[in-house]
Amino acid sequence: MLALIKRLLCLGCLPREYYSLVTEAGAGSGGVYFDVEGNLIKSRSSDHPTHVLFRNELRQPVRIIWLDPDGKEVAYSIIQPKAYYRMNTFCTHPWTFRACTGPEDGSTEIPNSVVVKHQQVIYPRADHTYEKPMYVVLRAPEAAAWTPAAHLTTFPRAFHRQAKTVLLCHQHLRSGQKCQAPPLPKDTPQEGPGMLSTLPADDHEPGPSLLGTLPLDLIQGRVIPVMQSGLELHGMQ
Q1: What is the value of pTM for the model shown?
Q2: Would you give the DSSP letter of residue 217?
């Protein structure tokens, strides 16, 4: 069973959401962010100005997003790949980022796609000048390595449920028992190579079950990014 979980993880059997320092409520533009204690991340007073120099290390454009005093997203400029962007801001103003599918404002933005030192949200350090700005490097998140210990500590409960469902379906397929699943939409085909739940009648011994016999939605998902456990003031490379 452990080998199957590892194989599924290598193939991308990961959930579409994760727990980290910051949890995004709502998909796409307009989301709000909370710290690990459940406090809303938002801009506060504008008493301590500073300067930031962003560097986009991704292969796609990145949108800079300010979190206003209500914690709402306010879209700022798009930085092209390998380009720099200089900004004057305040040390109590948080910023987050999203990769874009295109260079223009009408492109689609990808949630959970950009980090600074494994964090989604940053607060700039104070007292940086235009001549000596705070240097912030935008990168794609690294994938968290799966281990039995990390399964409980790093991966979210949604993935625990998903892994359990996949393993139960795999076991049912091997034993020839029916695989219990939620009702399918009305327009979903009722038969197909990815939806078989019983062995042929002439098979007397359970045979090997391949991942191709499992529904595709059970083995697709996003990578779990590596995130730090504490909100820090950062921006160094």
Answers
A1: 0.58
A2: G
- Report the alpha-carbon distance of residue 42 to residue 106 in Å, rounded: 26
Same structural domain, 124 and 187: no
Specify if 128 maps to a domain: yes
Q: What is the domain extent for residue 190? A: 148-218
Q: Please give the Cα distance from 217 to 196 (Å, whole number).
A: 14
What pLDDT sits at residue 11?
Answer: 36
Tell whether 6 is covered by a domain: no
Cα distance between residue 108 and residue 35, in whole Å: 26
Kindly report, residue by residue over 123-144, the tens digit of the pLDDT.
998 888 888 999 999 999 887 7
Nearest alpha-carbon partner for 195 in 163, 218, 168: 218
Cα–Cα distance list, 123 to 93, 106, 130, 232 (Å):
6, 27, 17, 8
Q: How far is CA 4 from CA 103, 159, 194, in A?
A: 40, 14, 17
